[in-house]
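Severity: low
Component: inverse-folding endpoint
Summary: output formatting inconsistent between runs
Steps to reproduce: submit the following structure tokens with default settings.
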């Protein structure tokens, strides 16, 4: 089973790639391809459709794609420029939508696509764009799953705060989910049968699977 993990140099992506690599599938060990934006043999910029196409051409047919590259900084409504405000929209929402659209001919029958959305426990200054992007991704996954061809499944994982990230930021890590626990949520999305769901930690879909 050949699985592409995008964002594999990040905290979440690295843990997900390692967790999948440690699994034994029905046909033997998973073949994990690790892609990132700035390092490694496989590189991709989700804001550039030609970069997505080049990555997929390099990997060949895939059984699953997991995208952990999506991120976005807190951006106030009064951001100095339109470009600065909309950066998260291009990279996280539009980029992952383009990844789905362009990868459908590269994912084998019965394969899966897993995206990354996110969540806030409450509105925070600068979080309005993040709320928009996350809600848009969850809605897209829920609706687009019905259009997936050949039994391909589409889901998302909504990580929330990660304990290791909070530690790096010098914040209280207690509210965060350990990255190893979060990685298991992604593994379950790849190996399970859900379609059109957004999973949060612990492994509970926020929408019913079909």
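Observed output (run 2 of 3):
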């Amino acid at each position: 089973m050949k699985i592409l993990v995008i964002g594999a140099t990040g905290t979440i992506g690295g843990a997900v790639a390692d967790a999948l690599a440690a699994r034994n599938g029905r046909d033997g060990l998973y073949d994990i391809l690790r892609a990132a934006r700035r390092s490694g043999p496989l590189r991709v910029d989700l804001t550039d459709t030609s970069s997505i196409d080049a990555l997929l051409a390099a990997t060949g047919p895939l059984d699953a794609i997991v995208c952990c590259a999506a991120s976005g900084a807190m951006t106030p409504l009064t951001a100095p420029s339109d470009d600065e405000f909309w950066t998260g929209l291009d990279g996280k929402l539009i980029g992952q939508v383009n990844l789905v659209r362009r990868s459908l001919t590269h994912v084998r029958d019965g394969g899966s696509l897993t995206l990354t959305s996110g969540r806030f426990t409450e509105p925070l200054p600068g979080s309005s764009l993040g709320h928009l992007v996350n809600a848009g991704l969850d809605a897209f996954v829920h609706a687009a799953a019905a259009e997936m061809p050949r039994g391909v499944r589409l889901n998302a994982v909504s990580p929330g705060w990660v304990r290791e990230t909070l530690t790096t930021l010098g914040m209280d890590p207690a509210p965060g989910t350990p990255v190893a626990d979060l990685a298991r949520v992604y593994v379950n999305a790849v190996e399970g049968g859900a379609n059109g769901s957004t999973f949060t930690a612990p492994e509970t879909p926020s929408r019913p699977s079909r």
